[in-house]
Amino acid sequence: MSGATRVLVLNSGSSSVKYQLIDMDGEERLAAGAVERIGEPGGTADHAQALREAADELKARGLGLDSPELAAVGHRVVHGGTRFTVPTLVTDEVLAGIEDLVPLAPLHNPANIAGIRVARDLRPDLPQVAVFDTAFHATIPEAAARYAVDTATADRYGIRRYGFHGTSHAYVSRATAALLGRDPADVNVIVLHLGNGASASAVRGGVCVDTSMGLTPLEGLVMGTRSGDLDPAVVLHLERVGGMSTGEIDELLNRKSGLLGLCGDNDMREIGRRMAEGDKAARLAFDVYIHRLRRYVGAFTAVLGRVDAITFTAGVGENSAAVREAALSDLHNLGVTMDSVRNAVRGAAARLVSADSSRVAVAVVPTDEELEIARDTYALAVQSD
Ligand code: AMP
Q: Taking the complete model, does pTM exceed 0.85, yes or no?
């Protein structure tokens, strides 16, 4: 084995490439950045160009991708379907497999594939590892993963609950056990990943047993711009009565709904400001968001039976004391007692915000998807050499 200990993590989205260079010897972040506005007028032409820009930026900082210290590249890939349930070394066959899943993730997987191809061209000698956003949820039992639709139809079209944000749920559930000073195998956690996208998961002894996102990231919680759960007949109604096309409904539910659809803002900070001024639409958006969240807390409490911790993470979860307080207030019957003073304290570290008397610990754990991807990549590409 060489002494190479650095991992480049790439998160290639439809219009951006985010990157981090992490030295796994001490898990030190050497560099982080993003190239945005890919494919937009005046922006970066394509993913190849974006990665070259990222490489130039790293080189200017003495961290060029030609360095012998670079051990591997880890890629976030959104959809692994039922085929990819663990981090996977990229081969031509694996790339073709990710390509096959494009119909399930038409916006995300093509961008992820582009990122992998460009990184391979740049350093063909390096192991490239695909880390799937769906993988952590592959353990969900059939009873939770199946939709109650005709089985043959479902199987034919790959219709089942896959779940997303898995890298975050994996990292945060494990970090929660560490915060409690317990073995992940002994801890049951409800993880609430509340960012612009939002999802909940139920993790029993380190194994995911349920999650709120489904076939796509549209299901579940109210999000910044996505509706989350709704009666599927809403789609039919919009088609039949509203005369809307598939594309228009897709746009409505994924980009113009959620908090944005309810009040015109998708940023929880702005909603907080408006609520303080007595804005009714902002108040309603907040209330709908919280109501859905509490429903999932109740549902996943029943799924797990025993809950040791409820953990908040991502932009809203880590920063909004108001959301945490509203989501878990008056749940003493479920064993949850918040400590308002602890909850109001801002901080960057993993911390408890429940009262010492609370049977269920309530935690705030900053997520770190890049570090999780780097760990998975390093473990597969280097440590298992
Ligand atoms: P993420 O997708 O995890 O980056 O989260 C982005 C979201 O976090 C933004 O849309 C904001 O609504 C939310 N956010 C960030 N900072 C704060 C804050 N201080 N208070 C409330 N919400 C915040």
A: yes
